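Bit of a strange request maybe. I'm writing a small parser for structure token strings and I need a real example to test against, not something I typed by hand. Could someone generate the tokens for this chain?
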Amino acid sequence: MTLRSTATNLVKSTLLAASVVVATPAFAADLIGAGASFPFPVYAKWAEDYYKATGMAMNYQSIGSSGGVRQIRARTVDFGATDAPLKGAELEKDGLVQFPTVMGGVVPVVNLVGVKSGELKLTGEIVADIYLGKIVKWNDPRIAAPNPGLALPDAAITPVYRADGSGTTNVFTSYLGAVSKVWADGPGISTTIEWPVGQGGKGNEGVAALVKQTPNAIGYVEYAYAKQNGIAFAQMRNKAGKFVSPEAQTFQAAAVNADWTSTPGFGISLVDQAGDGVWPITAATFILVPKVADDSVKQAGVLKFFDWAFKNGDAAASSLDYVPLPEATKAMVHQEWRAHLSAAAQALAQ
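Reply from user aminoacidic:
Good idea to test on real output. This should exercise your parser:
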């Protein structure tokens, strides 16, 4: 059963005040999208605000990046969403156009008694070895070294990972592969991998919930989920050797020198970038739409929605701890639409 065939039975889930999910009665959505859980909070908020402004409803289903790619390939949704950008050859083969919407950060989160957000300091090598099963206790000397004075328990670490195909996992493992050759040569980099140790949760939501309910756990989620769920995040040592906290400024610092045109479909990597103030696990998130639409009205509707979000959604994105795209990048996205999507003229004639 596809998302479109069950659209009239879906519940419109909207995130209010960055933390409360509410539902309205079931309805047939004007637009249906599916995919990455990383951007769900901001897409839900944009959908709520867009509905108030236009009366047009957008139902976004947080099913993971792999699910979003599958659904748009099958043309069962109006757009797909992924944190793991498709390569140029894949876009060409599948007849898709890809563009970024916002940027954010993937953050390690922990459940340690007495440890508050930002108190624990970790390195990429330490995190990799935790997920490799090489560091198994919180009071391991390697964790204690950058954390003098922090009471670390003599307790087994429970690593938590994404059980579903996930762009967040692709970002996280891309970072681990960049800082650990053992990781790059072993579990590797993908939306789905064979995890050496740990427990799996579905979606950013599932990982956040599992970490929150499991003493001595560590996981990785998009920053908004950590903040909204009140889970302690760790500082990370970046490429410059500085320990930094996840926040809008450190995410933006990772993108300051980004060359969006260097890769087809804007599919650049922002992990492990240079700079003192850089959060090392930063990423953009992406939308996929067909070049040739089965329904040009639907395609125009998708572009109108994201054009509206580019023009009116930056404040909402920032309030949810995402980084809006630079205006120059938004202009490049519009150029991409005009070059490849027949509905662009209709969508942008406002």
